[in-house]
Amino acid sequence: MIVLLSVRPGTLESTMTEDLSPAERYAAARRRAAEQATALAGFREMYDFGLDPFQIESCQALEAGKGVLVAAPTGSGKTIVGEFAVHLALQQGRKCFYTTPIKALSNQKYADLCRRYGSGKVGLLTGDNSLNSEAPVVVMTTEVLRNMLYAGSQTLLGLGYVVMDEVHYLSDRFRGAVWEEVIIHLPESVTLVSLSATVSNAEEFGDWLDTVRGDTEVIVSEHRPVPLFQHVLAGRRMYDLFEEGESRRRAVNPDLTRMARMEASRPSFQDRRRGRAMREADRERERRQRSRIWTPSRPEVIERLDAEGLLPAITFIFSRAACEAAVQQCLYAGLRLNDEEARERVRALVEERTAAIPAEDLHVLGYYEWLEGLERGIAAHHAGMLPTFKEVVEELFVQGLVKAVFATETLALGINMPARSVVLEKLVKWNGEQHADITPGEYTQLTGRAGRRGIDVEGHAVVLWQRGMNPEHLAGLAGTRTYPLRSSFRPSYNMAVNLVDQFGRHRSRELLETSFAQFQADRSVVGISRQVQRNEEGLEGYKASMTCHLGDFTEYARLRRELKDRETELSRQGAAQRRAEAAVALEKLKPGDVIHVPTGKFAGLALVLDPGLPAGRSNGHRGLEYHDGPRPLVLTAERQVKRLAAIDFPVPVEPLERMRIPKSFNPRSPQSRRDLASALRTKAGHISAERHRKQRSQAADDREIARLRTALRAHPCHGCDDREDHARWAERYHRLMRDTRHLEHRIEGRTNTIARTFDRIVALLTELDYLRGDEVTEHGKRLARLYGELDLLASECLREGVWEGLGPAELAACVSALVYEARVSDDATAPKLPSGKAKAALGEMVRIWGRLDALEEDFRINQTEGVGQREPDLGFAWAAYMWASGKGLDEVLREVEMPAGDFVRWCKQVIDVLGQISAAAPMEGSLVARNARKAVDGLLRGVVAYSSVG
Questions:
Q1: pTM tops 0.90, yes or no
Q2: Which of 96, 402, 652, 749 could form a disulfide with 396 if both were Cys (CB 3.0 to 4.6 A apart)?
């Protein structure tokens, strides 16, 4: 039996060996001696706590030379495995790259490793920081490593280990492909350490890693080091979500189920408005119920958590503005979570961290309101904040000086910032297109921050009661661990030229077929292939059953099917023609026409009040217009006013008579309806409707039908006594054959999908002279240095000299269109643009994009599949131009109405692309490269320069 203990070595072995025989004690001593000689033993001595079984297992696999995939909950200590890879690299005299998805994590990990190994042995490489890049241990963002691999950087020499933290980011729709590119292109000699949140298909991902990277151990831990308790806060009371019990399946708290049922049965406001009488007992029950069930305000929630000893807490609100509003509500409520000593510590740290910010910018950034909240222990955290402010909030929260943070969901994907409690205001969020329920995976990720290892005995997830809440649905979210890893990998133009340059087209195609995206697609095909095999077996059986001794029954069945299809088609055509004739007749109706409604609930005599014509056809009078055909409003002889539809008129209708409709007629007045209906019956009651003569069937005169019927009667199988029995088997054969072909099309669509997309991209690049067979042209080499969504557009702009003659600020404005994407699309107002050359260049960029978009359509490159060039967004051009021109922060933010954090982030991205352009632009006969560097200098100042996180 193997016993894995989360204790330091040697503390328990002595008690376990007392009952062993001398031989067993000798073997145990040998094992201990062997363990002490491992690198893991020395590594464990560096920590003042014991390692968990999954950490030990992972480290042992690494030391044995295997790659590892570690999937474990947030806060469980996965990074210990990554740090052991660093330890092994230093011990072996090799390099280790530690990659993270975001710069904030890179900065945090760099600081952690510097404290442990010293700044001389640790470097940092992000989009805007380069420190000690040739150190044996370098922390970097994943994109930096991808770019190094494509460029064949000398820094890769001696690389032994790569740690990919938060590897589940490869599901990210926009950046996920980078993770797969790195995994595929890393040299075989490099050992890969993949650290992931708990995902439901870790084994599948591990199988893929085993295929592309060699021997990979998959270690999955579902155990949370700090147990998580789920609650619902309603009114003044906090309810446990699950009922305590010994059964394995946790039942929902019956109090919550009862509350939901009572709330659902409570009469609505509309019911009370309609005057429905309520018994006094019902009113009393409602009053009691309302006093118990209500959604507490944000200050009330924090006060309640404080009283229960559940702070510090992170409250997730899916809106930046709501996060800021929550802080203000707590301040207005007089909430204070810090004593005087804590306030002084907060002020000292804040003043130290913000000392570099010019005094004139502090007011613009809302510094004093932000500081007041921090001193009281309350803060917001979202992407719209200045990065420096976010870092301060994170640091104060970790130190326990900020106890209540209101954050958007981006915090759940970011830095190490655990809390005792996590609060979810709602279980619905805006996903960019609509308000949608959060998924079990999102719920797990958000609540995973609750419970600080080594500090808290337990963590708490609190969901606020909302009207219409379903406790069973919440229990499903809390109890489900479904968070599958789905590849978002798609080839790009930059990827294509880099791959062809390094490996040639054929080898590149093979490499792309090893992607996780294709691996998942191929696996999904396996089940479909098995179904096809079963169908083919069934087809053989059906074929045998429909065999006829008189002739080929397959041919006879085909003739029957063709005859049936032709008859159906003619019937459909006839019905469509009758509908068209009926619609034409309806369009000729006018108010005052007396008609006979042929069918339906309101069949009989009727007076047309309004013809309800299709949009755009007024027919010389006013009235409502409908887009789905004429819909006349009529008064029936039975005094009903109804809007009819085309379905009520299967045959054309003709006016029987004309009547004048009084101007005083009111369709809502029973008296008006009665009088006009009486006049209708008097005027036209004696007229009988003309019966519509049934038209001769088209099938009777159709030559094709006559030919097929003759062929059927002449076929030998027509005289078979078992003909209809054979026909039933033939029909089953046909249906199964049709289903089988559909499945085969699905298999065809999923097989080699990535490679086929790559082929189309290569064909387009060949058309534009970026590639010639396996040769990358000069234009292609330029494209290879440009990374981003609009890589091809940037390359074409350089190629056509669109940016020649632009000043640094004008160039910054143009480049901003390559990176910026508005959070909410606003087509109503045109963005403000700099005048002169910059405006002309931006217009030319949009024209080039239009040409590329048409070309992509010709080559079937679909942007909705994540491939292709989106339209450049000019929404940040004015802000980039003003800032690069030296304007003040106050003036720029006032002009563009953008949060400081967003402004800094977009400036950093513009700087990043300007750096790529300065490297890719022609050095001779062009000023673009020099102006790009000047534009970087113009942008990298003030808030942008002193924000260490992009």
A1: no
A2: 402
